[in-house]
């Protein structure tokens, strides 16, 4: 799978403007085929989102790389991820920063992500099955928070960011989202708007089914 993965990096990422060397190296090293169903492994490096069960998807490689690049991560950073899914975005983040704390509200996906990340040997990750809208107060504050479902920012996330920290989320409703990056300032926030996109909806609560 090394050749399809490198082709993905060249044709889908570099060709579309992803230039952060750390992000490209992470995308080239994480075995995406381990994070999808075996029946879909042949499509793991295609330029598309894929179903992962429970009505959820693994984002297309470009969107994973784009969101990771917009976080401007340093190797000393601690990141909170809202929406673990199958663990692929988690794995990419963990190759760049010091530690990733990731919350998934669907227990079946949380368990699957744990298995996937263990198989891919990512040790600097902590996973939790819980309500992502509440954040993860125990390990706050974070250098960055990334949200992988579409909706609106929770006050808890903003409170759990360090001063100067970044919150990145697909903001909007009804499947019409825009990547929004907020930086926590001494007083208030700065806001930047990027790509239009479509994500599964951000929901509250925990699903143990």
Automatic annotation (TrEMBL):
It is an enzyme of class 2 (transferase). GO terms for molecular function: protein-L-isoaspartate (D-aspartate) O-methyltransferase activity. InterPro entries: PCMT (IPR000682), SAM-dependent_MTases_sf (IPR029063). Coiled coil: none annotated. Keywords: Cytoplasm, Methyltransferase, S-adenosyl-L-methionine, Transferase. It is found in: Cytoplasm. It catalyses: [protein]-L-isoaspartate + S-adenosyl-L-methionine = [protein]-L-isoaspartate alpha-methyl ester + S-adenosyl-L-homocysteine. GO terms for biological process: methylation; protein repair. It holds the Pfam family PCMT. The active site is at 59. CDD domains: AdoMet_MTases. Its EC number is 2.1.1.77. One of its GO terms (cellular component) is cytoplasm. Catalyzes the methyl esterification of L-isoaspartyl residues in peptides and proteins that result from spontaneous decomposition of normal L-aspartyl and L-asparaginyl residues. It plays a role in the repair and/or degradation of damaged proteins. Belongs to the methyltransferase superfamily. L-isoaspartyl/D-aspartyl protein methyltransferase family. This is Protein-L-isoaspartate O-methyltransferase. It comes from Mariprofundus ferrooxydans PV-1.
């Amino acid at each position: 799978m090394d050749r399809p993965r490198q082709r993905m990096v060249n044709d889908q990422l570099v060709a579309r403007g992803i230039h952060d060397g750390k992000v490209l190296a992470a995308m080239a090293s994480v075995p995406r085929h381990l994070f999808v169903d075996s029946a879909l492994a042949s499509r793991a490096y295609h330029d598309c989102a894929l179903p992962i069960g429970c009505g959820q998807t693994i984002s297309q490689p470009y969107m994973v790389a784009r969101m990771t690049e917009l976080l401007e991560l340093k190797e000393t950073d601690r990141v909170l991820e809202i929406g673990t899914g199958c663990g692929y975005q988690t794995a990419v983040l963990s190759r760049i920063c010091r530690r990733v704390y990731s919350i998934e509200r669907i227990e079946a996906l949380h368990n699957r992500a744990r298995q996937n990340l263990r198989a891919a040997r990512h040790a600097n990750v902590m996973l939790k099955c819980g309500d992502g809208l509440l954040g993860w107060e125990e390990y706050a504050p974070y250098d960055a928070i990334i949200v992988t479902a579409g909706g609106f920012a929770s006050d808890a996330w903003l409170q759990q960011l360090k001063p100067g920290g970044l919150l990145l989320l697909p903001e909007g409703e009804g499947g019409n989202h825009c990547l929004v990056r907020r930086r926590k300032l001494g007083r208030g926030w700065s806001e930047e708007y990027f790509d239009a996109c479509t994500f599964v909806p951000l929901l509250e609560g925990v699903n143990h089914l």
